[in-house]
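Reviewers of the previous submission asked for a worked example of the structure-prediction workflow described in the proposal, so we include one complete record here. The input consisted solely of the amino acid sequence. No template or homolog information was supplied to the procedure at any stage.
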Amino acid sequence: MARDIRITRVDITPIAFRDGPLLNAAGIHEPWALRSIVQVETSDGRVGISETYGDEPMLRVLRQAVPLVTGLSPFDLNTMEQRVRAAIRPAADAVEFELAPGSHAAKNASKVVSTFEVAMLDLQGQIVGAPIVDLLGGKVRDAVPYSAYLFFKYAEHIDRPYAPDAWGEGISPEQIVEQARRMIRLYGFRSIKLKGGVFEPAHEIACMRALHEAFPGLPLRLDPNANWSLETSIAAARELDELLEYYEDPCPGLAGMAELQKHTRLPLATNMVITTMEDFRKGVPMGSARVLLSDHHYWGGLRVTQTLARMCELWGLGMSMHSNSHLGISLMAMTHVAASIPNLTYACDTHYPWQEEEVIEGGRIRFVDGSVPVPSTPGLGVRLDAARLAELHEQYLRCGVRNRDDLSQMRRYQPEFSGKSPRF
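From that input alone, the workflow returned the following structure tokens.
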């Protein structure tokens, strides 16, 4: 009987993989990105997998949760969530970044719930012989569209820990256009997003105009990560109104975004000012956002993402997904839930093209015309490559990074860099 199957073992493996010198509002990515790979084993020998954040505070709360899930059935998702939310509290020493809601310690319980939910759904799918999307109600699309995600970047890291990536420098409008051409050539993306908040707004607007001219008709997005003041955001809207499909988190705060919405024809999108149910209750009636970028890693899982989609439908909001540096397990979890959401109104974000390494069997996940086909195999549809997991864990042990710190890394290039936000 399926209900007799129990969780008997949980393995948590921190990994590190190469990450490019990508610039953002907080500074620059370190050479190594951290993730945790979680394996949940059952009494009948099955293993469900999940991928989440890999900083030290996250590892501690994941380990704290192991006895909470041991002994449960893979179908006991509600009991798992109740136990985790009763036991997991914010870590006092968490390093938090305003532009990265996944780093917020207040979301520890939701992050742990999401991690184990994905692994347990993977197990459920294996037990009943169905892909996760079927456990979520079935697919409404055969493939999930993703967007090209462009970054301003340096050609290589300052300390040259490994050979430079193939993307080269991305600073000028011409270089950003070439970056987009290469990404579309490799993956077939049909929309483009640029991570802004790095240079003077006039330069970033010039890059968007260059993209508009190079790719006429392709939807464009700009994300200054709340690094523009309200006044700057209003001034920029006069030009961006003619260029973008949506305007993502240009200025900080629910009130700031609500005021900005009065001065732009564009829908405002966010993964920063609405990241909890309380934010939703406050921000949506204020008009702070018209597009919600969900992220199952910190909202609390795939089922919560479906709930958010229904809330967006009720309030007439657009729906898409946020991304951070991740590998194929997270990409596949995103794909399953996105395939189950009827009102996925915009292509999802993904950092996946920036990651060169992988931890799943068969290597990197294939995109078709900018989309990821929805798996039909049981569970997540991907399995761990034990040898690659061991290699990336060894990189974690050697790399010395334990908490993401874009600000300190940027000060190695520019000692005077303040990290002040909003900066423009």
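The first strand starts at residue 7 and ends at 18. We consider this example representative of the routine output the project will generate in years two and three.
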